[in-house]
Amino acid sequence: MITLWGLAASGIAVAGVTQLTSRQCAAMQENQVVSAANPVPCERLALVTFSYRDFQGELHDDGSMVVLDAVAPQVQAIFAELLERNFPLQRAQPMEVYRGDDEASMDHNNSSAFNGRPITGGGAWSKHAYGVAIDINPLQNPYIGKDAAGQVMVLPPAASAYVSREARLGMAEQVLDVFFRHGFLIWGGYWKQPIDYQHFEIGSRDFIARLVALPKDAARAEFASYAQGYGACMQRSDIVAMPSPVMRRKACAGLSKR
C-alpha cells in the first residue's frame, strides 16, 4: 500500500512544502481520505513535512500534514515554531494511515489536518475536507459533544482526564498565539457546543471559497495578508491596554477572522 507517510519519511530532519503528485492523490483515494466529491480537488492540496519532539523529548523526522496549498507555508511555520518551543506532539501522520477514520487517529493521539469527511455529528463538509483545519494532540485536547441520545461524549474516550483544563504538557492553550499568528484564528476550545480543544481552523466558508477560487500563488498571498492582520491588531493601543494576553489574543482573533 502506498502512503504519503512512507513517501515523506526521509531519515533526517525535514521541513518543506510540496504539491501533491498524482501518485499521492491516488494513495489518498485508495485509502478513502479523498474522493471525486471532495469540495477541494486533490491537485490543490500540499504536503507539509516537519520535525517534532514527542512527550519524551525525542526528535522525530516523520511529521507530515496535507493542507490546502494556500495555507501550506503558514502551516510549515506553525510546526517550525512548535519544534522551537519544544511543544510535544505524540505523532503527526496523514489520515490515510488511518484510512480516514478520525476516531482511530484520535485514539493514537495523532495530530492531523486534511480528511475528506463531514463535520462530526453533522452532514456538511468538515473544514478538514478543505485542508484548512488542524487537530493537535487529541488526548490532551479532547472533543466534547453529545451522542445521539443526548449524553455527553468525550473523544477520544481516554481523554476524559483532560476535560478539566489545568495546564499540562501538550495542551493547545500553550500555543494559541502560534496558530493565531499564522492565520488559524478559530479555536474549538472557545466554542460552547461542541467544545473541540484539539481543533484550529482559518475562517468562514466564504473566505475558504475565495482562497480555493484564486490561483495558488495569489491564494497564498491572500492568506499571508490575512495572517498579518492578526499581528497588526495585536499592536493596536486599545488591544495593548487590555489586562491579559488571553483577552488580547481572543479579541484580535475575533476582529481579524473573516
From TrEMBL:
It comes from the Bacteria. Gene3D superfamilies: 3.30.1380.10. Residues 121-202 form the Peptidase M15C domain. This is Peptidase M15C domain-containing protein. It comes from Herbaspirillum hiltneri N3. The lineage of its organism: Bacteria, Pseudomonadati, Pseudomonadota, Betaproteobacteria, Burkholderiales.
